[in-house]
């Protein structure tokens, strides 16, 4: 299709890429309706982005402190313990070094209003005070922004409307929170092995088959796309904590998949599996496989149920050939009560940091990566469409075994 003037709107998939001291990171954000007449692109990116055709992309590299406010030592302040963590209902929050909290929890010390939800990081904790960092978690990092045109959209007649700042959109609500911070690593492991509200034997809890998906159709497609990029055709794959589906690209013959799970009937219904093993990882951490037996290991929307994820990831590295990938994917839905206790209270990007930290503590991994996928539209026939039109977000961590 030929255009005689600049298109007014388009669907664009943005990717924000950056490198921290511990991993490479990519935040993918889909924006269904970009309005070129009023939305703000950073730097000189607009001139190239507006000329993109579907399937084309452009990219720009930005120095630290350009897409977000630059780092300032003045944004690191002390807060007396007595002025932190008192919620409106009177309950107190115990600060943990490296964790993020809404600035409203320390509003009088941080000179903001009590309803401010902008996160800040607790750098360190002492008996009398906290050291708080209100800088954006990406403030110190150079950032690369890619824009891929997905589709052109018709431009309706409009009056008024709002302006979207693309730099703010892709850096808002979490990116950067997954990296260690504070005086050392974030203290996720103060109570380890992790506890759960429902400590019932998992074999009993999962005795009855639950033929359910914890992701909507769009999110499943995004997970399949991720696995399609990371796994080689013909790979011998171990699907940890598997059930009725493995979320691998179709057709299933592309991979030789062993499923390890808790419910025999669920495993039997999974047509992507070529081998099925019933095994409870919370009772027996050792994987019943030989060293280097698999080309890759995946764990989809299940890591939050493991009381000893560090040891399980160490076992996953053992059974993966050198250079093979171990990939963990999760979202924001789980069986209530069976999730590990830190999980529900963490920001979604802090959960990403927890999983990344598990890989680091497990050892035996190199080339660590995190990736997030957000902003896609939920299918119209999804049962949760009335709750939100946005698809379930996808969070992923992976590394190469044998390092």
Task: Provide an overview of this structure.
- The protein has 403 residues and is an alpha/beta fold.
- It folds into 3 domains: 9-68 and 138-166, Chitinase A, domain 3, CATH 3.10.50; 78-133, no CATH class; 202-401, Rossmann fold, CATH 3.40.50.150.
- The protein has helices at residues 45-49, 107-110, 166-171, 202-205, 217-230, 264-269, 309-318, 342-345, 348-362, and strands spanning 9-19, 24-35, 57-62, 76-80, 100-102, 119-125, 129-133, 143-153, 236-240, 256-261, 275-278, 294-300, 320-330, 365-374, 394-401.
- The strands form 2 sheets. The protein has an 11-stranded mixed beta sheet with strand order 3-8-1-2-14-15-13-12-9-10-11, sandwiched between helices. Strands 4-7-6-5 form a 4-stranded antiparallel beta sheet, with no helix packed on it.
- β6 (119-125) and β7 form a beta hairpin.
- The longest helix is centred in the last third of the chain and has 15 residues, at 348-362.
- 39% of the residues are buried.
Reported CATH architecture of the largest domain = 3-Layer(aba) Sandwich
Number of helices: 9
What's the number of domains? 3
Provide mean pLDDT, rounded: 91
- Reported by name, the CATH topology of the largest domain is Rossmann fold
- Ranges where pLDDT stays below 50 over 5 or more residues in a row are 1-5
Radius of gyration: 22 Å
- Helix coverage percent of residues? 10-25%
- The top-level CATH class of the largest domain is Alpha Beta
Give the spatial strand order of the biggest sheet.
3-8-1-2-14-15-13-12-9-10-11
